[in-house]
Design a protein that fits this description.
40% of the residues lie in helices and 13% in strands. The chain has helices at residues 6-19, 35-42, 52-58, 75-81, and strands at residues 27-28, 47-48, 61-64, 67-70. The protein has a two-stranded parallel ribbon with strand order 1-2. Strands 3-4 form a two-stranded antiparallel ribbon. Strand 3 (61-64) and strand 4 form a beta hairpin. The longest helix has 14 residues, at 6-19.
Length: 89
């Protein structure tokens, strides 16, 4: 869901839970942004997955607790790009 339509998502999950046997897990495929994970759990989803980490990294975006930010907007990333690299073995 590129733009989250929460009422539709909640209705879809609730409808599925009502019609799914209690002994069956519910997997929410393509949950999207990690902010959706806690909502998915609260709605009764047992499993969920997301490709957002890879997609955001490919687009130079950074996941934070405050939202998804573009790396070019932050000076600390620009400064770090010019620092010597440290490699661990």
């Amino acid at each position: 869901m590129e733009r989250y339509n929460y009422p539709v998502l909640i209705d879809m999950i609730a409808t599925t839970k009502r019609n799914l046997p209690l002994d069956r897990p519910l997997h929410l495929f393509g949950a999207g942004h990690p902010m959706m994970f806690s909502l998915a759990v609260a709605l009764g989803c047992d499993l969920f997955d997301s490709a957002s980490y890879a997609l955001y990294a490919k687009d130079d975006r950074y996941l934070t607790t405050s939202g998804t930010l573009h790396i070019n907007n932050y000076h600390i990333f620009h400064a770090a790009a010019h620092m010597p690299k440290i490699y661990c073995r």
